[in-house]
Design a protein that fits this description.
- The chain is built from five helices and seven strands.
- The protein is an alpha/beta fold and about 180 residues long.
- It has two domains: about 30 residues, no CATH class; about 150 residues, Rossmann fold (3-Layer(aba) Sandwich).
- The strands form two sheets. Strands 4-3-5-6-7 form a five-stranded parallel beta sheet, sandwiched between helices.
- It is globular.
- The two termini are about 20 Å apart.
Amino acid sequence: MPLESGGGVGFNAAMGSVGMPKGSKSVPGAGRRQQTANVLVIHGPNLNLLGEREPEIYGRTTLADIDRQLRELGDELGVTVETFQSNSEGAIVDRIQQARGKAGALLINPAGYTHTSVAIRDAVQALAVPVIEVHLSNVYRREPFRHHSTLADVAHGRIMGFGADSYLLALRAAAGLLQSAAK
C-alpha cells in the first residue's frame, strides 16, 4: 500500500482513509477529524544538532523543522504529537515512563543509544504501546557497529534511510496502527 505517493490510490491524510484517491472525501464537506490519540516522539542524543552536524548524512533539516512537520501531519491524521529531545539516557527513560497510560504510540530515534541502551529498551518494553524505531540514515549502509539495535525486537517496526521523512512515514504508520486498534 503506497504512502501518500505522487498520485493514484493511497493514504488520504486529510481524511485518514486508505484506498481512496487523494483529494476525495468520504463525506462531502467533512473537515478534520477530532484528535483522539497521543503520539510521543523521542529524539535521542545529538539530534538537537540536526542541520549542522554531518549534513551529508543527516541532511540540513533542523530538529525544530521536523517537530513542526510532525505536529502539522499529526493535525491532518487526527493525532496529537508531543516531541522530546535529550542527550541523557536517564532523561529519555524518565520520559518514556511518564508516557505510560498517556501515549497511544511512541516514535523513537534513540540515535547513539540504539546500539547500547538496555535501559531504554526496558522502558520501551514496559510502555506496552506500538513503538516505531526511526533513523534518518540507513544504518545498514554505515559502520558495522550501527547495524545492531537493542530495540529492534521490541519495536513494532523500524523506518530508516529517508532523512527527515523517516519521521513522517513513522507517524503515518503509528496513526494507522492506532486507527486499526480503535476499530
